[in-house]
Amino acid sequence: xxxxxxxxxxxxxxxxxxxxxxxxxxxxxxxxxxxxxxxxxxxxxxxxxxxxxxxxxxxxxxxxxxxxxxxxxxxxxxxxxxxxxxxxxxxxxxxxxxxxxxxxxxxxxxxxxxxxxxxxxxxxxxxxxxxxxxxxxxxxxxxxxxxxxxxxxxxxxxxxxxxxxxxxxxxxxxxxxxxxxxxxxxxxxxxxxxxxxxxxxxxxxxxxxxxxxxxxxxxxxxxxxxxxxxxxxxxxxxxxxxxxxxxxxxxxxxxxxxxxxxxxxxxxxxxxxxxxxxxxxxxxxxxxxxxxxxxxxxxxxxxxxxxxxxxxxxxxxxxxxxxxxxxxxxxxxxxxxxxxxxxxxxxxxxxxxxxxxxxxxxxxxxxxxxxxxxxxxxxxxxxxxxxxxxxxxxxxxxxxxxxxxxxxxxxxxxxxxxxxxxxxxxxxxxxxxxxxxxxxxxxxxxxxxxxxxxxxxxxxxxxxxxxxxxxxxxxxxxxx
Length: 480
Hints:
It is a single chain. By secondary structure, the chain is α/β, with parallel strands linked by helices. Helices cover 35% and strands 18% of the residues. The chain has helices at residues 9-18, 35-45, 95-101, 138-154, 158-162, 218-230, 246-254, 256-259, 274-287, 304-312, 315-325, 339-348, 369-372, 374-380, 417-425, 439-451, 457-466, 472-475, and strands at residues 5-6, 26-31, 49-55, 69-70, 83-91, 108-116, 120-121, 130-131, 184-185, 188-189, 193-195, 202-204, 206-208, 235-236, 264-269, 293-298, 328-334, 354-358, 383-387, 431-434. Strands 13-14-15-16-17-18-19-20 form an eight-stranded parallel barrel, surrounded by six helices. A six-stranded mixed β-sheet has the order 4-3-2-5-6-7, with helices on both faces. Helix 6 (218-230) crosses helix 7. The longest helix is centred in the first third of the chain and has 17 residues, at 138-154. The model is unreliable at 57-64 and 165-180 (pLDDT under 50).
């Protein structure tokens, strides 16, 4: 057997930078082989892209159908007549490119392959098989895929077990939501509730994120808080660092005075020492116009060393004293940078009752909190709170907090917002904290919570696999 021609990522990137790529509006990659090439091309020309799954050959590169077959509906978020660049890694007979092109008669289509025959060929000089850099560790990739499958399968049924048992009035009638009880309080119907770890209480499956409250106008902040309450949300997230205390002040203005009896309010402290932690707590209580917090977090733990230092400097001691004094009901920790920090916290103390961390469909592919931390939380009875379910803008091509950007987009090119949220809710999380830009956006999430139906193992894995070709350091840019 002839040796394969080795290509490095660097050589491909250099060739892409030098090649006169066509001016197009959208990049469409043919999965599986064209997934990574399409993403690289899209990044080079700063255009949106998505992957269309096509099956023709098996894992040994042998044809298994008479002709290539699309495995999903080809719906594109672009206008009729737009210019599309169709990308694959290799094209020999052109059958796959032709099959997809026949579905794109309403668009102006050109084709690009890294090797073979197309309108544009990146490496026309190569006429032998290629050792692609993303396939060099194919055995390792298959091992990780098997681990993902095993892990996601192990979660089947756990989430249903977190839902409130079927009892009382106001139960949703759908058999797929048979475990969801609609509770009520003086304001009306709540969103479906889930068990909150081993605390003995239940919590609405959707919570309002506080960071965005500080970024709104005062009028919009009030409207958003009231929309949350009217929509059945009872979990309210915040932190002393959000807007330098402004987010907490707005809870003190619009939430606590009228609704403290129905609102579960959490805040967080980034303190690195006990003295600062005490000051943060007193400041949070004052700004939010309350004499106690329902939940207080050691916030934004960034590494195992960071955890060690905070504990050694008295932060954990202050947190436990606050709980014993009644200023805080429940205690926990949060972070988004390094799952190893979460593991270290779980090693150092058994006092934590709640944990907040990134939970989204991309996470299992990159420095995963879901795979490394979530099983430990479930085992210990610690309530998992999901954040960054849309990667804090990363699903929209952004690489900075709160912002969309020009990087390849998971939403809407590959996943819908509904699919992204349903994925996270289909895992054993207690609450999904959403960062809404305004009241209208929050209402959309409330509506999704009310219509939620859990994804099974196959559906969850399909979403994980769909986004596997994206660049982790761009999508979840906040991870170390």
